[in-house]
Amino acid sequence: MKRLLFFLLCCFTSITLFAQTSVSSSGAAKEQVTVRGQLAGPDEDDPLPYATISISKEGASEKVVKKLAADEKGNFSVSLPAGKYVFTFQFVGMNPLKKYVDVSARMPADLGKIVLSESSTQLDEVSVVAQRPLVKVEIDKLTYSAKDDPEASTSSVLDLLRKVPMVTVDGEDKIQLKGSTNFKIYLNGKPSNMITNNPSQVLKSMPANSIKDIEVITDPGAKYDAEGVGGIINIITDKRVDDGYSGSVGANGDTYGGYGGNTYLALKYGKFGFTGNASYYHHSRPESESNYIREDFTPNPENVLTQDGTNKSDGGGLFFSGALSYEPDTLNLFNLSVSRFGGDFSSTGLQNALSKGAQNYSYLAHSFSKQKYGGVELSADYQRNFKKKGEMLTLSYRFQQNPNDGEYENLFTNVTGDYFYPEGYRRKSINDAGGKEHTGQIDYVNPLTNQHSVETGLKYIFRQNTSESDNTYFDVEDNTWKVDLSRKNDLDHDQHIVSGYAGYSFKTGKIGVKTGLRGEYTDQDIHFISAKDTTIQTHFFDLVPSLTFSYQLGMTQTLRVGYNMRISRPGIWYLNPYVNDLNPTNISYGNPKLDAEQSHSFNINFGSFSQKVNLNASLNYSFTKNAISYYSFIKDGVTHNTYDNIGKNQNLGLNLYGSWTPSAIIRLYANANVNYTDIRSTTDNQLKNNGFSGQGFGGLMLTFPKDFRVGANGGIFSGRVQLQTSQSAFYFYSFNVMKSFLNKKLDVNLSASNPFAEFVEFSSTTKGEGFMQKSSFMQPMRSFRLSVTYRFGDLKTSIKKVQRTISNDDVKAGESNSQTGTSGSTGSGN
Could you check whether the bond before residue 545 is cis, i.e. omega within 30 degrees of 0? Predict the structure, then answer.
């Protein structure tokens, strides 16, 4: 493992050094004067990265004496002898601007902020508009400019994520960051339960034209909760509107019977602003087939269990979010937001089981299950600005309520042999789970100078998680439903977290440094209510350091090196002792005795971003000594699936991203990563695994006259390396045709997913002490989808929102959330 790490580091360093462009410099003229400034677009807060500056002598404008490019923030600086000059500023999509500058020998010249206006050229009814670079790099993050993506008008946010560096989305719309599901998704700088519970569905229904930027925060600093995530995807909504309104409405449907609609609205009047987003979707999945086989051997009695079944599901959800801002003056800003979401998924299944060997039986199981989800979120923020630019104080409060309920019912028929239940046995289980959360936070930022900046803050979180279940069975003799007390396993979980942080950043020339330290104290009480009540109290304190260093190799090239230590506290889905025995031979439950896990992460990142070619390479190494791992074992002929702090994980990953826009007609892009994982149990030497895994996604977009576009996408995903389970690889592909009407206000998109394969097989194999089991699913994948979006209003300036707000990212969510997890877990892992 060490040799492999050393080898990859050497390769990565060689590639980075080879990619750096050497620039020779001539001797500086004597008595030169520095001229500096910053280039920005019509929105003065929107800098123009890598814009071109040409300099000529006044009276000889045809002869350029110097030519240079601005940096990633639109800043430029040049040394010139005293004299009179003509500066010409150029940026694609903007009107060129000439500025006459008289350079004095006595003092530097600061041109301040230079604003360029947008331009477009109309030729024979074909609009030719140049495109800005879609990606820019900062000390601790990458930003994908959604508003500059020409495909955003006919795409969903999920479609845009497929093109964001280091992000991949597979054929089932599951999202990964740097090849891992261990990350968080934010909306406007804070976690959104609306997205967390059903990220794929929500982002699929959210129109991309309501998004300004998508940030990939690869090195979460001290201001973020000490969550052991591989990074953060922060979606920033577009709030531009000037004393007026703008918005969009859309609808979609697919051949599975699914359908949905969405609407987006932004309003601004004087000092008040409002943005809102609402969507509804109905999901329908046709019948799929599954096969399961488990072989028991020494030390278990030899036995073979096979289960063949079918399953189909449907459901829907309604989402709403709204934010109100009030800016009484330039120093004070108030934000108030509310979101409400809810829905359910229902499924029906049929399973035929046969057991031979130590246990001889067979049965036919009819099942019905329903999962409900929902929640309410209220937040209030106040931002106080000071006379010094960038200095601010923020006060925030947030309340969340997150119910997550489920129920199921079984009926067993055709029972033969010595099975757990007799012929005609029926049972029900209802679980009411969820939590409430109150959070208060204060943040202070002070840019001491142009080079130095500090930040600090305090935070308090109070959480109450509960889980109550009602388990009953039907007594055939009495013809009544009776309570089964032997299956009672309820939970009360209270958690108090007090944290504080301090951070420091330094930026000068080509060098940038960002460092910080966070301290977190946790106090929690867990009451496990069953036949034998148990109360567990835990207290722990963690110091979490972070450090990021960046160096600008060239005008478009940056090298970053970072380290951070994070912790992950188990959430309700990991702690919940509720036993899901929908399949009585294969049950799952949480572990209320779990401890928080600690992980250490190191990364090296090289980025080169220009108008036509964007490249990014990231090498990551992380290790965790007490990882929460999903594991399985056999007891009394039943497979038990649960969690424990038994994982010792190491992961080495390489991520590559590239996009190429050779002309206004063609755009190609690709995202790929490969990971080497070594995972082993700290309690059982037999439980260990290692190997390579990888994912790749690519696409092509052709843009023709008359606002007509054609696209093709495809990807391949290998199975993740887990403690006991190996998974099969699978591939997916799609095609889409898009057309805009009514002066680009009406967009129509027709897409086809896997049109040449009705089903795709997914399989997994799990091995443990005395058993081996294999599952396979034939999942319907071929579908056709039509979506229509209409935009109205006029977008101009922006509705302001506070720059700091609450972001509780410290909870490990578990299997219910496909976007978070830990290496080695079947439900969610690397």
Answer: no
